[in-house]
Task: structure prediction
Amino acid sequence: MHDVNALDEIPFESDGVYIFDKGYLHFKRLYRIHLAKAFFVIRAKVNLNYDVITQKTISAKDRRNGVQNNKIIRLKSAASLKDYSEPLRMVTYLDREKNRIFIYLTNNLKISSLEVAMLYKSRWKIELFFKWIKQHLRIKSFWGQSQNAVKCQIWIAVTTYLMVAIWKKKLGLKQSIYEMLHFLSISAFDKTPMNQLLSNIDDSETNSLISNQLIIFDL
Result:
C-alpha cells in the first residue's frame, strides 16, 4: 500500500510528536493527529494554497541559525480546508550544510521556529540509523516476523558489532570491523581466546578469506 495509508494504522498518543516527509501530506489524516492532541512536523509541498493569518517575529538566535520565516496560515482550497479547518504554522528554514530551503508545517504553535526545524532534522538521524544497519549489520532476512523477534535480531546484531568495535579499539587493530566480523564468522567454533584470535589477523589472511568467497556467477 502507499506509505500515507500507514497513518491509518498508527495509534497517535497525546503530546507525541510525529515527523513526516512530504509524501505523507494528507490533511484529513493530519487532522486526526491534531484531534488526538498530538503534534506533527511535515514538509510542505511547493504548490500549497494558503492564506497568511499572521507573520510571527523571528528571534535573532533563530535567524542566525537559518530560520527565514514563521507564519500562521489557513489552507485556502475548499477540499483542504474541509479536511483541516484549524490554523497551521509554516516555518521556512535554510539548511546551510545542504544549501537548501525547507518549508515545514506543524500544528505546534508554542515551540520556537528553530525547534520545529531541528525536530524535522532529527528525522534524518533515524534515516541514517537504518542506512547504517543496512551497510554494517548485513541483516538479509529475519528469523521471525513478530515485533519482538525483529527487535531481538537487530539488537543482537548491534551488540555483536559494538563488541567487535570495542575489541578493535582495545587491541589497536588496523583491520576494519567488516574484516574482523568476516574473520570471526568463519572462526565461530575456534577455541582460541578472542584477544589472541583477533590479534593474529593479518591483511593477507583476511584478503584471502574474502577473495575465496564463492561468487554466484562463477557457479
